[in-house]
Specification:
This protein is an alpha/beta fold and 175 residues long. It has nine helices and five strands; from the N terminus they run αβααααβαβαββαα.
Length: 175
């Protein structure tokens, strides 16, 4: 991680080093409020002013959550829950954000929202590693891409080049 071997390190140590994960299936604290879920993302931080600024920043990315901060996270729609999961990960102030299938099962409008936010995040100072079955969206967002089949890399390269490849277009984009 950033040039250091982190094999065997505890997850909280990885978070403090700048790694954050948005797991498949969201894994929110569903009985807790949205606000408490977001604060939980900053559990390893002590810089209260920066935490408050990051909370404001994630709520700017996800304005639908601003009015839901006191709502129980489990009461939100699937798309809103995914927004909470991404926002919670961002609250750790990551340098590298890992996302595992962040758009699975979401309505197209929410997919577009998540994609736009990921584009904004990646344009900033956070590197993004995205694992995604929505190949069209992933290739549109990525600089570099790896296409896996049964756990093996079958193609790799610049995402724009892969998106133009006839083989990729037929097999993964339905074109």
């Amino acid at each position: 991680l950033f040039g250091d071997d982190v094999t065997g390190q505890e997850p909280d140590a990885l978070v403090r080093r700048g790694l954050s994960l948005v797991p498949e299936g969201r894994r929110l604290f569903t009985a807790m409020s949205v606000g408490d879920n977001l604060q939980a993302g900053a559990y390893s931080r002590t810089d209260k002013a920066a935490i408050a600024a990051d909370l404001d920043r994630v709520l700017t990315h996800f304005p639908a959550l601003r009015d839901r901060l006191k709502a129980q996270a489990g009461s939100l729609s699937g798309g809103q829950q995914q927004m909470v999961a991404v926002a919670r990960a961002l609250m750790s102030a990551p340098r590298l954000l890992l996302l595992d299938e962040p758009t699975i099962g979401l309505a197209p409008a929410i997919v577009d929202t998540i994609a736009g936010i990921l584009r904004d995040i990646a344009a900033g100072d956070v590197d993004v590693l995205l694992v995604e079955q929505n190949a069209e969206m992933a290739l549109a967002l990525a600089d570099q891409a790896f296409i896996l089949e049964r756990g093996r890399i079958v193609m790799a390269g610049a995402a724009a080049e892969l998106a133009r490849s006839d083989e990729v277009r037929r097999a993964y984009l339905g074109i």
